[in-house]
Write a structure and sequence with these properties.
37% of the residues lie in helices and 19% in strands. The chain is of the alpha/beta class and 356 residues long. Strands 1, 4, 5, 6, 7, 8, 9, 10, 11, 12 and 13 form an 11-stranded mixed sheet that branches. The chain has a two-stranded antiparallel ribbon with strand order 2-3. Helix 4 packs across helix 5 (195-207). The longest helix has 19 residues, at 53-71.
């Protein structure tokens, strides 16, 4: 898939990408009294997970143009893209991001627990969710391996690509999608409300996982370069690849999870840069109809509302039989610390058994 902007996988990776929405910048100056001097040409740093770089390129450009019209002030957006957890870790370790566009709520909580996000972001509009996608399977043209459901991923000899859950939020969505589908009794051969059976499904899948890339985008690129039989991936990533010329095809299983991705202001950094008002305005803008249209047309995202997301549009976005949220299977906090990714969680045990 052709990349139109440089993707930065981590803080140490390379120089920051500057979008040319203004020609210069100046730094805010802090004072001992805790006040700061607003910069003449503000620079807003956005750290984002790897998939939506095209959408955020359009969104930042449109916002900067509107801000210039309304306020007479030029803005510079600096953007970094990488694995969601890697980005959260970078922010905690000192990367000064004013806005964090995360793949998962748990990665936002990493930044919050470090004291950098001080407001209650879960009560912001739409719970801070700005875009929705779903987990599915990118398969070779004609689907030669007959991949239609989660159980098909356990067939002997299959080669699966999925990112590393230690670095990628997308990887954790993939795992939760399979776990939730089994737990809800929507996967043939696996009993509903049976965590041991859901673990058995994950073990069967990860026995076939040969590569764990550092981000969802890297995993998709690896598949598109000819490696593997199937990539577990986001719908929006798959559709962007197909639009760019991929001959592979995307399959949505009957039961899958709604990928709900939040974007939040990193309060401490935005305050330090004296641009809190701009960062707040940008995040609010992401919920507007105009921004949502960009997410849909450029980012290939479904509506935030899950009822609408499930219905699809009958064409590019097919209806989904069982589209569930993480709240339907215990919520991210429980999934992350206990049932799936905890020390005795289904994935922790399944991965150890499949790669022991």
């Amino acid at each position: 898939m052709k990349r139109q902007r440089t993707v930065l996988a981590g803080l140490a990776a390379a120089a920051t990408l500057l979008l040319g929405v203004a020609c210069s910048s100046s730094s805010a100056t802090s004072t001992k009294g805790g006040k700061c001097t607003p910069p003449k040409t503000p620079q807003i740093t956005l750290a984002a997970y790897s998939n939506p770089y095209e959408a955020y390129g359009k969104l930042t450009s449109a916002f900067a143009s509107d801000w210039k019209t309304d306020h007479g002030q030029s803005l510079i957006f600096s953007m970094s893209f990488g694995g969601s957890t890697t980005q959260a870790t970078n922010i905690v370790n000192g990367f000064k991001a004013d806005v964090y566009a995360s793949s998962t709520a748990t990665d936002v909580e990493l930044v919050q627990k470090a004291g950098l996000i001080t407001h209650d972001w879960k009560t912001d509009p739409d719970g801070s969710v700005v875009a929705t996608s779903v987990v599915g399977f990118m398969v070779r043209s004609g689907n030669p391996k007959g991949i239609h459901d989660w159980s098909d991923l356990t067939q002997p000899g299959l080669e699966i690509l999925t990112p590393d859950p230690a670095q990628s939020g997308g990887a954790r969505w993939n795992i939760v999608a399979a776990y939730g589908a089994a737990l809800r009794g929507k996967v043939s051969g696996y009993t509903a409300d049976n965590p041991a059976d859901a673990q058995r499904l994950l073990q069967g899948i990860f026995t076939n996982v040969k590569v764990l890339d550092k981000s969802a985008n890297d995993s998709f690129k690896n598949f598109e370069s000819g490696n593997g039989d199937v990539a577990i991936t986001y719908e929006n990533q798959a559709l962007a690849g197909i639009a760019a010329g991929s001959k592979d095809q995307f399959v949505i299983p009957p039961s899958t999870v709604a990928i709900q991705t939040p974007a939040v202001v990193v309060d401490k950094d935005a305050q330090e840069h004296c641009i809190s008002d701009i960062a707040d305005a940008f995040v609010k803008y992401l919920h507007t109809p105009g921004a949502q249209e960009v997410f849909a047309k450029v980012g290939y995202q479904r509506p935030i509302d899950l009822t609408e997301a499930k219905k699809g549009d009958g064409d590019q976005y097919p209806a989904i039989s069982d589209l569930f949220s993480t709240d339907d299977i215990g919520g991210w906090d429980t999934l992350a610390s206990d049932t799936v990714f905890g020390p005795d969680g289904a994935f922790t045990k399944a991965f150890a058994a499949s790669h022991g």
